[in-house]
Design goal:
Largest sheet: 3 strands, antiparallel
Strand content: 25-35%
CATH architecture: Alpha-Beta Complex
Shape: globular
CATH superfamily: Nucleoside Triphosphate Pyrophosphohydrolase
Helix content: 10-25%
CATH class: Alpha Beta
Strand order of the largest sheet: 2-1-7
Radius of gyration: 14 Å
Order of helices and strands: EEHEEEEEHH
Structural class: alpha+beta
CATH topology: Nucleoside Triphosphate Pyrophosphohydrolase
Length: 134
Amino acid sequence: MLVLKRSQRVGTHKGLWAGVSGYVERGEQPRETALKELQEEVSARIGQITLVREAPPLTFEDPPTGRVWTVHPFLFDDLGVDVRTDWEHTESRWVAPEELGSLETVPCLEETLAAALGERATLRGTDEKRRGAP
């Protein structure tokens, strides 16, 4: 799995590891947003990725930010992306899914990955070990 370390220039969860993410704009479908964010955040192009699975949305509370997030989990297969991050991230890393627990991640990253993989997961958005410092 590709994880990205969030820069100090983003609005939330600075310095934590995350997947590619973004906001679904008005009039946009989540799949369109996912493809757009892959292009913007890691320089992925059509033909370099293929959609493997789209899971139902997950919703969870994020007390440190005072927000409720709805995440649309997607799983894409990398067919040769030369990962180049934008300003939102300071580094990228490929990790095995079982390594996520050893990283300070954004809330519910493990659950989002489980949903994208088609596995059952329990949301634990306030787990301090996984979430890291605000």
